[in-house]
Design brief:
There is one protein chain. This protein has 202 residues and is mostly helical. The protein has one domain. 40% of the residues lie in helices and 6% in strands. It contains seven helices and four strands, in the order αααββββαααα. The strands form two sheets. The chain has a two-stranded antiparallel sheet with strand order 1-2. Strands 3-4 form a two-stranded antiparallel ribbon. β3 (92-93) and β4 form a beta hairpin. α5 (151-160) runs antiparallel to α7. The longest helix is centred in the first third of the chain and has 25 residues, at 2-26. Bound molecules: heme C (2 copies). One heme C is lined by residues 53-54, 57-58, 65, 67, 72, 78, 80, 82, 92, 96, 98, 100-102, 111-114, 120-121, 170, 174.
Length: 202
């Protein structure tokens, strides 16, 4: 009888402990303490890449890709009246799709169309062109504007995506984005480990 009671008591303890354990598992990960001194230099490396013409020329708020940087001799909207596309897809309007001129690899001709698989404009809410470091930082962290990505997803996109990779191998005399995909991925990982601080000024 005593033995039975002990069993019952331990069962009761097990069951009362169970919901607690479930609640613990269901909780969001404990936020990393923000270390601005080590995180902001990492952000500066990320910003140098994201704001570079090879990235920002495709990340625009309006409907026109940009031609900017030394290779283009300044900044202007893409020639030939190229548009995002009335359907918002970023693939261009029917009749003048991006893939009319942009193929899966770079043209070897100077000022020929660069290329990578699935060439199209980034959605307007992912705007970097003409935006400050603080603005880009806020966008990257905002799941309602970054394609519903965690920061780890953003890091993996930078490491593995083909359009992103093009930024470091843009062909035909275009100046590439600084560093490499792997180095930028590492900078994002380091920035996250420091609590992903953003610069305070605009
Ligand atoms: C040819 C156009 C093009 C170029 C060039 C380009 N991107 Fe993008 N980018 C896109 C498109 C399209 C998406 C949306 C993809 C999606 O959500 O699946 C995107 C989305 C992203 C995202 C995820 C969304 C966000 O805002 O967090 C990141 C990060 C990104 N690009 C990084 C880069 C970097 C870094 C470069 C330069 C090295 C670059 N991109 C160059 C078209 C481009
Ligand atoms: C009629 C042909 C044509 C069409 C259509 C076209 N492009 Fe281009 N695009 C070019 C050429 C040519 C260049 C390179 C010009 C140069 O090097 O001086 C270029 C360059 C670019 C660049 C600059 C990349 C960099 O070096 O930073 C971007 C971004 C771009 N195109 C995006 C697009 C997008 C997005 C679409 C579809 C919405 C599109 N283009 C449609 C011909 C075209």
């Amino acid at each position: 009888m005593t033995k039975f009671l002990i069993m019952l008591t331990s069962l009761a303890i097990m069951f009362s402990a169970a919901p607690f354990a479930t609640a613990q598992e269901g909780q969001a990960p404990v936020p990393v303490a923000v270390d601005a001194a080590s995180g902001l230099p990492e952000w500066d490396k990320i910003y140098a890449v994201f704001s570079h013409p090879r990235c920002a020329d495709c990340h625009v708020a309006d409907d026109r890709p940009r031609w900017s940087g030394a290779h283009y001799g300044g900044t202007r909207v893409h020639a030939f009246n190229v548009q995002r596309g009335a359907d918002g897809s970023g693939l261009g309007n029917p009749g003048l799709r991006c893939t009319t001129c942009h193929f899966a690899s770079n043209s070897s001709a100077l000022h020929g169309p660069p290329g990578a698989d699935n060439w199209h404009l980034a959605p307007a809410e992912m705007v970097w062109f003409g935006k400050s470091s603080a603005e880009i930082c806020a966008q990257i962290k905002d799941r309602s504007r970054n394609g519903d990505r965690s920061l780890e997803d953003v890091a993996l996109h930078v490491r593995d995506d083909k359009l992103v990779a093009w930024g470091w191998a843009p062909g035909a005399d275009r100046e590439p984005a600084p560093g490499s995909a792997e180095a930028t991925y590492q900078a994002i990982e380091n920035w996250m480990a420091a609590g992903a601080p953003c610069p305070v000024t605009q």
